[in-house]
Amino acid sequence: MKITNVDIYMLDAGAQRASRRPICCRVWTDEGIYGDGEAGIAFDYAAPAGVGMLQDISRLVIGMDPMRVDEVWQRMFKISFWGQGGGPVVFAAISAIDIALMDIKGKALHVPVYELIGGKVNDSIRCYASQLQFGWNEDVGPRGTAEEYAAICRYAMDDGYDAVKLDFTMYDRDKKDIPNAQCEGFLSNDFYKMVEERIAAIREACGDVDIIMENHGRTDVTSAIKLGELCDKYNFYAYEEPTTPLRPEFQKLVRERVKTPLAAGERLYSRWQFLNYFEDNSIQLVQPDACNCGGISECKKICTMAEAFDVKAQIHCAGGPISTAAALQLTAATTNFAIYEHHFRSTQSSIARLGKYDYQPQNGNFSVSDRPGLGQELSEAAIAEALVHVTVSEP
């Protein structure tokens, strides 16, 4: 079997187009089997770069055997030159191709991807409702007051979830964006009080629900330690991206002062970048994204390495339907699995319609498809309405 060509798409997420432009690929073979992959840079500003990078990376794999996944991965990683720099755009492209190859291999062997990476160990996958400051399901819109934070968490719990994640630093009480500078250094008393008001309201309304505080790297060491006091005081499940991912030692400084387990990994690429965090015990919940850390094959290696350091795993997932399918296949075969992220954006029909199947949890738990390969592919509408479509057929 040989790879013959690669179709690359920037998908139209409709109502979410301004903040989400999923970048996907379909890798074709000379036996008619194809696989779909996704580059994990759908949101923010990198999506157009993902299209260009996928075009260049695809030229490296034309003519190769898609069943030899690690051989193809090494070629993309080393011959691309920029691969060993570990940047998000090049690794998102590598990831998309890798995911598509795992999809092809599963289809060729008539097994789900999880059977290719050790077999299923998790039948029912517990989820948390992620990024509730944006809303949940049909209840869309930013949150401001403490009462609104409590109400949206209660709404998610009524939907069957017993764990939630929120960024308490993103919006002020009037639902206006909080500048990054206000989240750094010496926090004002009013800022600190606002965050605690929200947390206390959630605890009162939702009892022992597991809460993850998400900072998106907006805080620095000084402010992260201060907010970490609240995580400890209110018994949080985890504390995510408290500092910039560019400096592993910063997160270690937070870990030395905060008891709540620290989570990070969605902006780390390849096993080499994760190793520093494992060695200094600055991550307790690792969150690699299969669509930007190097694909399914690399994400599996990262999770296995994490287990050797007593680190639990949660696959980061904030993209389109292919991203969800890849994350679920990995989670099914992850022995150190802790919890699964179901993102607010994934509850929206504008994202769900991009996949042939709409995967949603039931009562806060996912089951994993036993269809061959990923168990998901791009919908006909996603392909027909793509904002960009490029085909690569020559090295």
UniProtKB/TrEMBL annotation:
Alphabetized UniProt keyword annotations: Lyase
InterPro entries documented for this protein: DgoD-like, Enolase-like_C_sf, Enolase-like_N, Enolase_C-like, Mandel_Rmase/mucon_lact_enz_CS, Mandelate_racemase_C, Mandelate_racemase_N_dom
Gene3D superfamilies assigned to the protein according to its UniProt record, in alphabetical order: Enolase-like C-terminal domain, Enolase-like, N-terminal domain
MF (Gene Ontology): lyase activity
Any single biological process term in GO: amino acid catabolic process
Domain Mandelate racemase/muconate lactonizing enzyme C-terminal intervals: 146-261
PANTHER family attached to this UniProt entry: D-GALACTONATE DEHYDRATASE, D-GALACTONATE DEHYDRATASE-RELATED
Name of the featured protein: Mandelate racemase/muconate lactonizing protein
